[in-house]
Amino acid sequence: MRHLLSAGDLTRDEAVLVLDTAAELARISGRSVKKFPTLRGRTVVNLFYEDSTRTRTSFELAAKRMSADVINFSAKGSSVSKGESLKDTALTLQAMGADGVVIRHGSAGSAHRLAGWVDGAVLNAGDGTHEHPTQALLDVYTMRERMGRVDGLRVAIVGDILHSRVARSNVLLLHTLGAEVTLVAPPTLMPVSVPTWPCAVSYDLDEVLPKSDVVMMLRVQAERMKDAFFPTAREYSRRYGLDRDRFARLQDGAIVMHPGPMVRGMEISAEVADSARSTVNEQVTNGVSVRMAVLYLLLGGSGSAIGNQGD
User: Fold this and answer.
1) How far apart are CA 117 and CA 174, in angstroms?
2) Tens digit of pLDDT for each residue in 157-193?
3) Less packed terminus of the chain by CB within 10 Å, N or C?
4) All domains of the chain, ordered by start, with CATH?
């Protein structure tokens, strides 16, 4: 692995290595050690062209826990707002000697472009509606922690598939790891390309729920919608929201996930979001361990990630 641009780039072995490394880091972080010297002397740049509190903070915390130096580059108050291109910014980062660049950008393919311009590792933290591979890794890690496996799990991903980079990355990664995915959404929120994705499609949430081990609810991304994709919020919630009655139809061991931020009362009711079978907070916690693992594997920590405590 030289970059992490797409969840589809990961082989099964590479994905398992990330998950196993994250589990080991989480285990040790649970003890007294909060900081590892593994990436001391390395510089990680957070290059965010879109707002994101959770993802940016998660990457920053992960890099700092590995003792890397972190530069947060927000495009809003930078030369970018004066018209500097992504390539110019990339060349500036290259001149600074950045070892890793975490990029979130509104255009699909921007992370791939950046990877061609810098020597350091590029991590895609979301490119438009295209992909968000570390979100998929932390989601799958959370499933594995809760369910004990990923292979053979039946996963329903529900909601605004059309605008969701999380859905696309999860479908690719879950397929690689042997899970069966069903996408559930109104026809207007299903991508045209979905027949080429390695998953099933349904428009009926009530039919899919009882057969699912994992139900991942997605936020309706109103900010990306220029047209009316459904009649009203109430109508959407009635057909595709996870409320108390639908929750009661889940199997006993099934879990409910959400990549956040949640719109409580629309795609998920408050009592479902706050229930013991919801993994929303665990996903945030696990995100730090997973991103630590990815940074470690990409930026070439020497030896074991956690072996050389005395360095």
Assistant:
1) 30
2) 999 999 899 999 999 999 999 999 999 999 999 999 9
3) C
4) 7-132+284-298 (3.40.50.1370), 133-279 (3.40.50.1370)
